[in-house]
Amino acid sequence: MKVTIIGSGSWGTGIAQVLADNHVDVTMWGIEEDQINDIQNNHKNSMFFKDVDLNPNIKATTDISVVNGSDVVVLSVPTIAIESVCKQITPYLDKKTIIVNTSKGFHPETNERMSEVIRHSIPEDKLSSVVSLIGPSHAEEVVQRILTTISAVSLNPEDAKTIQKTFSNEYFRIYTGNDEIGSEMGVALKNSIAVASGVLSGLGYGDNTRAALITRGIAEIIRFGEAFGGKRETFMGLTGIGDLIVTCTSPHSRNFQAGYEIGKANTAQIFWDTNKKTVEGVRTAKVVHELAEEKGIEMPITNEIYKVLYEGKDPATSAKDLMLRQLKPE
Ligand SMILES: NC(=O)C1=CN([C@@H]2O[C@H](COP(=O)(O)OP(=O)(O)OC[C@H]3O[C@@H](n4cnc5c(N)ncnc54)[C@H](O)[C@@H]3O)[C@@H](O)[C@H]2O)C=CC1
Ligand SMILES: O=C(CO)COP(=O)(O)O
């Protein structure tokens, strides 16, 4: 089995570590020469994981023709880059290939889910199917082989099983699923709630507040996901509540970190002025706000985060407004 990983960032490196540990022939492709050289020559990706030794069998290159002959191609770039990397790899796909999506969010203009974007960007004769490999998994922990479970979700059950077998080992356990809509909605929407979790911590609120946010957050994720065809039970699994918990509670989460700085400063301007990291929940809040308005879905937390990020509302007022909304039964 030959696997190529597109993207040499944080999650691509986590995935490569798992595959190399499983004795899979794995090569990372990336555009950042420093990172690629670091991985190939020093077996490190120091930009993201200073003190972590990578499996020395991970190969890395800036030559896109490495995609040739791959049985599986894993896409580990931010959602804004998915369509363009699909177009870049297409000439080098020489058979029906399983494309593994690991990105969490929506297309920046069409608002499509990631599997939809990939199916629209890669011709049918080069695509076996799309498998979304998603769930609660901070790369910082996976590279250190900390026990992790996530899901291989696909409309093609055979390809989902292939990915399950290829990635599973004693520290990385993969379940399979077929609710593509519910799973991809769950992992996308949790990022905006994680920004809100960081904001609340930055404002100085505590554990009661976070528990309230996670509980009411999953309620609005379910309302939104069901309206688009996701199954309710999916949101109770790894790609729903599982990913919501890890992102809302972990200091590793860049969504949480971004929210924390916004809460501490009591303004999102600090984010727009300084952020250089991949923070998917910010754009997702905009997409979800727009789609929810169109469909008339009640999304109070996401809407407040949208107002903080895009309308200059101060987070302290947002938090109070959420508490003082019309009272209702749970
Ligand atoms: N970091 C994590 O723990 C996890 C991240 N994810 C998801 O994975 C996706 C990628 O995130 P990270 O790896 O964390 O981001 P990152 O910022 O650490 O790395 C992104 C990589 O994509 C590359 N890239 C960006 N635009 C590109 C383009 N046009 N062509 C080629 N390469 C390009 C960058 O050079 C970089 O190597 C996101 O959607 C994120 O939500 C999912 C699970 C865990
Ligand atoms: O999706 C993730 C963990 O499951 C990573 O979260 P962040 O993008 O917030 O770091």
Describe the structure.
This protein is an alpha/beta fold and 330 residues long. The protein has 2 domains: 2-178, NAD(P)-binding Rossmann-like Domain (Rossmann fold), CATH 3.40.50.720; 181-323, N-(1-d-carboxylethyl)-l-norvaline Dehydrogenase, domain 2. The chain is 50% helix and 13% strand. Helix 3 packs parallel to helix 4 (114-121). The protein is globular. 1,3-dihydroxyacetonephosphate is lined by residues 104, 136-138, 194, 243, 246-247, 253-255, 280. 1,3-dihydroxyacetonephosphate (13P) binds next to helix 9 and helix 10.
Brief account:
It catalyses: sn-glycerol 3-phosphate + NAD(+) = dihydroxyacetone phosphate + NADH + H(+); sn-glycerol 3-phosphate + NADP(+) = dihydroxyacetone phosphate + NADPH + H(+). The chain has 330 residues and is α/β, with parallel strands linked by helices.
Q: What is the CATH topology classification name of the largest domain?
A: Rossmann fold
Ligand identities: 1,4-dihydronicotinamide adenine dinucleotide, 1,3-dihydroxyacetonephosphate
What is the level-2 CATH architecture name of the largest domain?
Answer: 3-Layer(aba) Sandwich
Lateral strand order in the biggest sheet: 3-2-1-4-5-6-7-8
What percent of residues adopt helix (DSSP H or I)? 40-55%
The fourth-level CATH homologous superfamily of the largest domain is NAD(P)-binding Rossmann-like Domain
Global geometry: globular
Binding site for NADPH: 10-11, 104, 139, 254, 280
Active site: 190
Main location: cytoplasm
Protein name: Glycerol-3-phosphate dehydrogenase [NAD(P)+]
